[in-house]
Amino acid sequence: MGIKLSSLNVPSADGSKWVEIPAADGEEGGFKIKVGSIYSPEFRSAQAAVQRHASKVVEKEHAGESEFDLTVSQQASFIEDEQMRRIVASCLILDWDGIEDDDGNAVPYDAKTCADVVMIARPETFTLAVQGGVEVAQQKAENIADTVEK
């Protein structure tokens, strides 16, 4: 009996890793998501666009001035959160395992379902995906540094 590579939980050759999402109260088991690097061009570009948009909305509404409306800032924050959920689902999460329909059939990964259903019902999915993306990026940086030293 040997060790399974998947149990080592390190990034694969394609620069991704599987992250466990533990079972919630009342669930039989958790599920796994496959995440890529937060430094992927797609993720960084989309994240920057969301941040630029949010900054413009707050700036447009006179942030820091007496006529600033806090509700506008809160709405901008809500929109930014929603957009980031969609970006994580479409650019960072690459696949999942353990998501089933009511009949017990595996549901193929779909970014829209991930953002609109899974991340709403299980908000820790977002945080764990980003943490996993950071770990993938750090591992890639360490691999590059090791290669340069050689």
What descriptive keywords fit this protein?
flat, single chain, 150 residues, 3-stranded antiparallel β-sheet, 4 helices
What does this structure look like?
α1 (41-60) packs antiparallel against α2 (70-92) and α2 packs across α3. The radius of gyration is 19 Å and the shape is flat. It has one domain (26-149). The two termini are 34 Å apart. It is built from four helices and three strands, in the order ββααβαα. The chain has helices at residues 41-60, 70-92, 111-121, 124-149, and strands at 17-21, 31-35, 93-97. The protein has a three-stranded antiparallel beta sheet. It is 53% helix and 10% strand. The model has no long low-confidence stretch (mean pLDDT 83). It is mainly alpha-helical and 150 residues long. The longest helix is centred in the last third of the chain and has 26 residues, at 124-149.
Which shape, going by the Cα principal axes?
A: flat
Contiguous uncertain segments of 5+ residues: none
* Oligomer type: single chain
* Mean pLDDT level: 83
- Percent helix range: 40-55%
Please give the order of strands in the largest beta sheet.
1-2-3
Q: How would you spell out the order of helices and strands?
A: EEHHEHH
Query: Which range does the strand content fall in?
Result: 5-15%
Alpha-carbon distance between the two ends: 34 Å
- Domain module tally: 1
Radius of gyration: 19 Å
